């Protein structure tokens, strides 16, 4: 397994280009199953999670071609079973349920296991399918959903921990070919949900209200092929803004939609950093150690859970005491024990992390656990004394395209050691 050596102490400056959004590309690639015609998707990032999704589409029978960031998919004839050996590697594979149910009226996908950030149930996805007249059963670790016909219905998709992003995507993808009107209340409003709705509408769907808590879908008979450009990855952008806050003099991000990350830029400004937006560029100027913050992760447009670990890395050296409360994945603190090995002073009380700023962090061998925690450990290493060795780097490669090369392009000193 590869590992990354981060030699701390370098200052970052310059420009970095942000890739297309992983969390938008995944459901959009799944949505290509809804038509027999070819679809062309631009700005698809080169990530292992995307590779797994393309494997699933091929396994289902779709023709898949990839030429650098452009993916062409044609699903003329498809099966309806997504295999365990691929699904177990990426729980987001669950988002093929909706398009397979919509087009073939049945789908079998291995149940996504939990993961280190917590339990990953799909009860709300199934509740949405039931509202369309589908039934489901669990057999041999698979979930099978099926329907004689799909009829539009009304469903409230709010769970005890808020809306569901992939659940909203799945129900939307099943509803576009249902007979009649579907209303999704308490829908997720993330930019990635809007991007998927825009792609589906380009295919001939009739979806209104994406980006709000109420999405209304008029079912249509069939969808046609379409061409689409995936939105920029707001979490990669936030991650590089935090890198600029931790180690930057002046770092500029290109190809960013700043309107997708106002909660993150607002937090960084409150922590004392200067942020300027100029079209699709965002610049952050470092000015020493950050000011402590109180943050609570919330559904979009609130502060994103996918940026919580990165902020822990930044606030570990803030003047004062910061408090972070994780309301979406309350156990999402695998990075804390590793940061404490670097000298961070963080204590956990259930979903709340109390972070007492320290003068210095020291490099150490640390273990990557999940995608965002791993990136946060690299960020912590940027300003630590000495070398931070991040093991199990495959976690990072799931969601960040060439993060070591991009950071080195800004002046970091990061080595990737092939295992
Ligand atoms: C998406 O996951 C993202 N993944 C996650 O990003 C992100 O953290 C999450 O949304 C929240 O924003 C992709 O888009 C591929 P949810 P998703 O359903 O849709 C509970 C990353 O780092 N819930 O919005 O799976 C669930 O347990 C990844 O890129 C139910 O209870 O998350 C969680 O507590 C990590 N029942 C909360 O809702 C359900 O049926 C939000 O989950 C579904 C979810």
Automatic annotation (TrEMBL):
E.C. number(s) listed in UniProt: 2.5.1.7
Catalytic residues identified in the record: 115 (proton donor)
Entry keyword set: Cell cycle, Cell division, Cell shape, Cell wall biogenesis/degradation, Cytoplasm, Peptidoglycan synthesis, Pyruvate, Transferase
Any Gene Ontology CC annotation: cytoplasm
Residue ranges constituting the Enolpyruvate transferase domain according to the UniProt record: 7-407
Major localisation: cytoplasm
Record-listed 2-(S-cysteinyl)pyruvic acid O-phosphothioketal modification sites: 115
Pathway linked to the protein: Cell wall biogenesis; peptidoglycan biosynthesis
Residues the record lists as binding phosphoenolpyruvate: 22-23
Domain of life: Bacteria
GO BP annotations listed: cell division; cell wall organization; peptidoglycan biosynthetic process; regulation of cell shape; UDP-N-acetylgalactosamine biosynthetic process
GO MF terms, alphabetically ordered: UDP-N-acetylglucosamine 1-carboxyvinyltransferase activity
Chain residues that bind UDP-N-acetyl-alpha-D-glucosamine: 91, 120-124, 306, 328
One Pfam match: EPSP_synthase
Location(s), subcellular: Cytoplasm
Reaction equation(s) it catalyzes: phosphoenolpyruvate + UDP-N-acetyl-alpha-D-glucosamine = UDP-N-acetyl-3-O-(1-carboxyvinyl)-alpha-D-glucosamine + phosphate
Record-linked HAMAP family: MurA
Function: Cell wall formation. Adds enolpyruvyl to UDP-N-acetylglucosamine.
Family from the record: Belongs to the EPSP synthase family. MurA subfamily.
UniProt protein name: UDP-N-acetylglucosamine 1-carboxyvinyltransferase
Species of origin: uncultured Verrucomicrobiota bacterium
Taxonomic lineage: Bacteria, Pseudomonadati, Verrucomicrobiota, environmental samples
Gene that encodes the chain: murA
